[in-house]
Amino acid sequence: MNSLSEANTKFMFDLFQQFRKSKENNIFYSPISITSALGMVLLGAKDNTAQQISKVLHFDQVTENTTEKAATYHEYLDAIKKFYQTSVESTDFANAPEESRKKINSWVESQTNEKIKNLFPDGTIGNDTTLVLVNAIYFKGQWENKFKKENTKEEKFWPNKNTYKSVQMMRQYNSFNFALLEDVQAKVLEIPYKGKDLSMIVLLPNEIDGL
């Protein structure tokens, strides 16, 4: 494994397989958010803890340098800012847990354009809390090539082998990056957003109950 992107992809599939074991409904998660959160912990971890996190993230298989560690608190703050463009905030959990909870929820709400509110409900943060690691993501984009409304048709969607639902599916004919993934028995399609800096990656298993 040569790059961090390969490690992130492998971690994504590992997570998906774990989620499938406990969920029968739709699964929605952000692998890069989880990788970033664990990566921030890894920067300050050492010994067995660092080894286990690296193994889970597949960083131990990457030839790029992923072993940088922060020896002091100030080095950790600098590393967090350098690699993850974020910061560490101090708050008084011991004496003001409720105020701390509201402060964190307010930050999440502002970062997600008020889409995520009250992330931490009453009672989830107490005076025995020592650390809260928060990651918020919000995205709204326009397609590079827009789907035309008149091309939307009702099609069958199969949540499992035995049942299907009739849903409205968008259609368009265009040139997109496409590949066959033999190792996971699936097809992958890249649909770019406007500007082509970001894309939606769609994985379609060869079998209905695949992946």
TrEMBL record:
<dbReference type="InterPro" id="IPR036186">
    <property type="entry name" value="Serpin_sf"/>
</dbReference>
<protein>
    <submittedName>
        <fullName>Serpin family B member 4</fullName>
    </submittedName>
</protein>
<comment type="similarity">
    <text>Belongs to the serpin family. Ov-serpin subfamily.</text>
</comment>
<dbReference type="InterPro" id="IPR042185">
    <property type="entry name" value="Serpin_sf_2"/>
</dbReference>
<feature type="domain" description="Serpin">
    <location>
        <begin position="13"/>
        <end position="210"/>
    </location>
</feature>
<dbReference type="InterPro" id="IPR042178">
    <property type="entry name" value="Serpin_sf_1"/>
</dbReference>
<dbReference type="InterPro" id="IPR023796">
    <property type="entry name" value="Serpin_dom"/>
</dbReference>
<dbReference type="InterPro" id="IPR000215">
    <property type="entry name" value="Serpin_fam"/>
</dbReference>
<dbReference type="Pfam" id="PF00079">
    <property type="entry name" value="Serpin"/>
</dbReference>
<dbReference type="GO" id="GO:0004867">
    <property type="term" value="F:serine-type endopeptidase inhibitor activity"/>
</dbReference>
<dbReference type="GO" id="GO:0005615">
    <property type="term" value="C:extracellular space"/>
</dbReference>
